[in-house]
Amino acid sequence: MELSVSAQQYVEIIKLLYRQAQILILDEPTAVLTPHEIDRLFVILEQLRDEGRTIIFITHKLREVKEICSRATILRRGVVAGCVDVADTTERELAAMMVGRQLMDIDYEQSKQVGSMKLRLTDVWANDDRGVPALKGISFDVHSGEIVGLAGVQGNGQSELVEVIGGMREAEGNVYLEEQNISRMALRKRRDDGLAIIPEKRKEQGLNLATTISENVIATRYYKAPFSQRFAVKQDKADSFAASLMERYAIKAEGPRSFVSTLSGGNQQKVITARELAEDPPVLIAAHPTRGLDVAAARFVRDELVKRRDQGGAVLLISADLDELFALSDRLLVMYDGRIVGEARPEETSFEEVGLLMAGHTHA
Amino acid sequence: MHDVEMEHEPGSGEGEAKSPSRIPEAFSGALMNIGKVVLTLVVALLMGALVMELSGKDALEAYEALFRSSLGSRTAIANTLLAATPLIFTSLSAAIGFRAGVFNVGAEGSLYLGGFAAAWVGFTFTNLPSLVIIPLAFLAAGLVGGIWCYIPGVLKARLAVDELVTTILLNYVAILFTEYLVNGPFLVPGVANAMTEEIVMAARLPRLAPPSQLNASFIIAVFAGLLMVFVMTKTRLGYELRATGDNPVFTRWAGISVPAVIEKVMFIGGLLGGLAGAGQVMGVHYRFVAGFSSGLAFSGMTIALLVRNSPIGAILASLLFGALRSGSATMEIFSDVPRDLITVLEATIIFFAAMEISFDFFKRRRHDR
User: Fold this and answer.
1) CATH number at residue A280
2) Taking the model in full, what pTM does it have?
3) Which contiguous run of DSSP H or E holds residue A348?
């Protein structure tokens, strides 16, 4: 028989105690627990604290910081942004430290013309791989000529959301592409009908590292003319297509037959961006498209997203980087615990407010 | 992993000396693969020699006898090609599966069922001319073999049932089922061994170099290999199966139906196994004989591992294995080294090939879960 997730966690904790651990490190321990189970966990943790043990509690939920922690260290992009006594600090101050404001070297203009609805989700529910609900009634839409930014700490359902839009995860509720209900369609059909996805995991989902740039950029079109005739795939057409993309997107590599595994991270991301944007898709989902990129490469990718929007594309930008979201988005959604908990135009809100929502502080 | 891409980029001749990184990767990759194959073979031969020396035999003499009797005369060469024929089919069968990341071990079962189907056509439709009955028998064998592997293919693709387990088990089912058939419904009265009646003359494949039994199925096998090169490198299915083998997650995100690819690959693998059986039945035995294969499909897997799933490599390595097999009988007579030496060589090859494969293939399998 399998233990429930909370029981498994108790076992882990008991294991630590049995080994006389004096320092306990808990990484997002409440992510999979129900509110009631969380309360029980906190009772145990408080007991352990009172016995004189040290507990390091990693979380992105402000409520939990306030409830159980004595001191808090805030990490932002791998750097300590602050170290405070929780009792003397408001949630607002904590949120401000979490999201911080970096100076973005560029500011993009807002969309000039928002057009018709291109992508719509209505009351979408889905479980994650463990069977725990990850999306709890998501509804929103994205219009042509608009970048909608989806803010949120990672692990609040964003990955599952992209998979549902791509048709790779079972879900309840409906997904519409323009007027068409695509909820039951295979990804190939969705892509043929104008959906493009820059996936979150570049090296696993976005690229086939074992092969060439040519073969990577035709992955979503190898079966269509001019790349294919009957059963055959035209390698020469793939090569010339790849060469033109390499020029248009300034991909630095020997040639179309270079292996993508030999490219830098930035150039790899450009290969994905080039493939997904090559045919000016009406709807683009971009999941963390600039993560891990250097400034120049990140800027290049952002420019391409804005260009797509200005040409009438509907772009859903999923990012953990608030600077990026505020700079690019025409509209911001905040996701927390599988729900959309806030919506605003970036000029009408603030980092602090979005940060509070991201951390589950719903009554901001 | 980059099968037969040996094309040298044009115009990159002289600049290479200065900057080694300019050598096209596909080319250097292929060179390295060939190097690994040769190294594996050399090590296997050394290992065989070591075993022989340790048991007091003359290794040089044995190898000389081996190669003389497999390549020393026209008939010897023909017998080598004869022995290579089923191996070409089975190694291609294994190669296409492995290349797609599918561990299809079911070709042996397909080989038996396909062989029986071919024999059944051969002794049932006694009035058909050769031009009809031979293709019909191959078709029946390919279909039966293909469907046999398609079953575990569907189970893997749709229900994530491990194909390694199902295909191994289904092999027993197939082999024992054909044994039942020849001992039951198709029992021939007055024949001591478990075998069907003979197929009609029209269904027997023409011999290419009598007195050797080498027959037309060798040509079909080579043709299948060349077709496979085309399929793997130049077709949509080839693109899909290579992508699936390289990275199934990526393949899925690109919008390719990975289950459909797995099903197709399993079907083709079984089809090739069925053809191997048909070739043996119609070209060598002229009837279905229970237990006639003795692991041809497993030797095919060894070859596929050795050549890292390259179809051309599979043909070449099958010829080499064919030489070892056809030579071993004579070697046994002249050098008093038992033919089990061949098993030592094959085992050593598996050992080294598997060592490398386990690094990338199984890592990916686990990752796939």
Assistant:
1) 3.40.50.300
2) 0.83
3) none
